[in-house]
């Protein structure tokens, strides 16, 4: 039987899951729609030649006009090399495409941002940087997605240095923003203080590194980070430069051990490593009331029922089908909405912290409880409030090209979010 015949037979035998059927029926989740009419040759002469020559000349003379005369100001590239796709590993660019189309869908649905999924074959960090740098003139921002550590750090650093539009590695910063927001909510429930906590982060890759850095910047007491060989420590001689820097920041005394040792007496577990890593015994060894964020996708480090049965007071996952979804989708639409609205040149650490506090503030509107430490991603206040907080901070930090009031940005974000909601809900009608 040929491969194509085998696939068809599997489909006919009902071998496709509901999710695969959705993707197959729609042939992907993303598309392009025009914004000006094209009914006749007059329309064509304005939108295309000869009319288009005038905006071309205008932009050549005054480069800033590109933001007014093209789609660039509301357009984000979602770029992946497919090297760390969810928790599925290095599956390659083609297999990464459903996730990138998904991110593009989320940008549009939640923030009215047009996003283009771009999966690229980039054998080296330098190649990835060159590709993105070459594409940048088309876009108002670059969302890097599912690029593995340590490559992601060098790539992001170089792109931030050389481009004057926001470059944001979602798995690092989007995740860190939402973890901080969720932790603020969880601490309100358990009555602990961030500065008193012992936090264990499993995973020293993109997500784990940024989570640890943002929690430390916010004033977290003690943070330990682990990779597959155990706790990052300056005494280890197998660390790359990024892990070494993190080891020196988090564990200067050189504590050693594996996950079981690290978790004894810990207040918080953040899993951004691999599904199934956390055992009930490890949860039992934590200090009560324990907070467990098992965030790997699609399979969390521990399932919520098992974590609760082992005594965890607050449990969160990255998934949409359990309560307390700690997922970067709560951050990146609003972060980019705010950044694009003031044409920010970059996204600073303060802008990230402001985004986290805005998400936490929305959770408080509804009342925080053990199962609602975060707002739902469908909460209509999330994107406008995050956008306003990001824009306000961009203005304060001097990285905004446009001077607009946070109220104006918030009102605009509300309009964009409503547009996205109507589009998202009317598809297929
Ligand atoms: N909920 C959310 O919003 C998000 C969740 N994630 C999830 O986090 C996970 C990691 O993603 P990302 O950081 O992008 O990936 P990376 O590939 O950049 O990093 C993965 C890290 O996990 C570590 N790791 C793997 N297996 C183990 C293990 N058995 N014990 C301890 N550490 C281990 C790796 O260790 P080593 O360095 O030794 O190889 C590495 O440091 C994925 O499952 C992803 O789905 C990511 C982003 C957002
Ligand atoms: C949510 C996400 O970005 C991830 O799991 O990689
Ligand atoms: Mg990701």
Automatic annotation (TrEMBL):
The keyword Lipoprotein does not apply. It comes from the Bacteria. Pfam families: malic, Malic_M. Its cofactor is Mn(2+); Mg(2+). Keywords: Metal-binding, Oxidoreductase. Divalent metal cations. Prefers magnesium or manganese. It comes from Brockia lithotrophica. One of its GO terms (molecular function) is oxidoreductase activity, acting on the CH-OH group of donors, NAD or NADP as acceptor. Gene3D superfamilies: Malic enzyme, N-terminal domain (3.40.50.10380), NAD(P)-binding Rossmann-like Domain (3.40.50.720). Belongs to the malic enzymes family. This is Malate dehydrogenase (Oxaloacetate-decarboxylating). A divalent metal cation binds at residues 145-146, 171. Residues 27-160 form the Malic enzyme N-terminal domain. The keyword Ribosomal protein does not apply. The active site is at 48 (proton donor), 103 (proton acceptor). (S)-malate binds at residues 297, 327. The lineage of its organism: Bacteria, Bacillati, Bacillota, Bacilli, Bacillales.
């Amino acid at each position: 039987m040929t491969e194509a015949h085998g696939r068809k037979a599997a489909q006919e035998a009902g071998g496709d899951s509901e999710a695969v059927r959705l993707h197959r029926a729609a042939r992907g989740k993303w598309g392009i729609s025009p914004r000006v009419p094209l009914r006749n040759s007059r329309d064509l002469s304005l939108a295309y030649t000869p009319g288009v020559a005038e905006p071309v000349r205008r932009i050549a003379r005054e480069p800033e006009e590109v933001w007014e005369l093209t789609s660039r100001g509301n357009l984000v590239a979602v770029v992946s090399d497919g090297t760390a796709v969810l928790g599925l590993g290095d599956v390659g660019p083609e297999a990464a495409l459903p996730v990138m189309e998904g991110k593009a869908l989320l940008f549009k649905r939640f923030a009215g941002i047009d996003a283009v999924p771009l999966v690229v074959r980039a054998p080296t960090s330098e190649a990835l940087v060159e590709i993105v740098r070459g594409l940048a003139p088309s876009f108002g921002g670059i969302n890097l997605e599912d690029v593995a550590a340590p490559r992601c750090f060098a790539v992001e650093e170089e792109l931030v240095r050389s481009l004057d539009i926001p470059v944001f590695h979602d798995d690092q910063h989007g995740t860190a923003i939402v973890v901080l927001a969720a932790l603020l909510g969880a601490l309100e429930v358990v009555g602990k203080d961030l500065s008193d906590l012992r936090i264990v982060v499993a995973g020293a890759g993109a997500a784990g590194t940024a989570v640890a850095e943002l929690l430390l910047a916010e004033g977290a007491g003690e943070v330990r980070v682990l990779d597959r060989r155990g706790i990052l420590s300056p005494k280890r001689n197998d660390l790359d430069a990024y892990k070494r820097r993190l080891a020196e920041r988090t564990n200067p005394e050189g504590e050693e051990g594996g996950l079981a040792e690290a978790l004894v007496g810990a207040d918080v577990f953040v899993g951004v490593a691999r599904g199934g890593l956390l055992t009930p015994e490890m949860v039992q060894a934590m200090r009560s009331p324990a907070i467990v964020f098992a965030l790997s996708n699609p399979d969390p480090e521990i399932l919520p029922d098992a974590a609760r049965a082992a005594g965890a007071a607050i449990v969160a996952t990255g998934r949409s089908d359990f309560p307390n979804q700690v997922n970067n989708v709560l951050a990146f639409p609003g972060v980019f909405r705010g950044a694009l609205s003031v044409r920010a040149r970059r996204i600073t650490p303060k802008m990230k912290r402001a985004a986290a506090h805005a998400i936490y503030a929305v959770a408080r509107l509804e009342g925080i409880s053990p199962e609602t430490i975060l707002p739902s991603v469908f909460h209509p206040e999330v994107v406008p409030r995050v956008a306003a907080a990001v824009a306000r901070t961009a203005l304060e930090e001097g990285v905004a090209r446009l001077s607009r009031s946070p109220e104006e940005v918030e009102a605009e974000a509300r309009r964009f979010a409503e547009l996205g909601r109507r589009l998202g809900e009317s598809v297929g009608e």
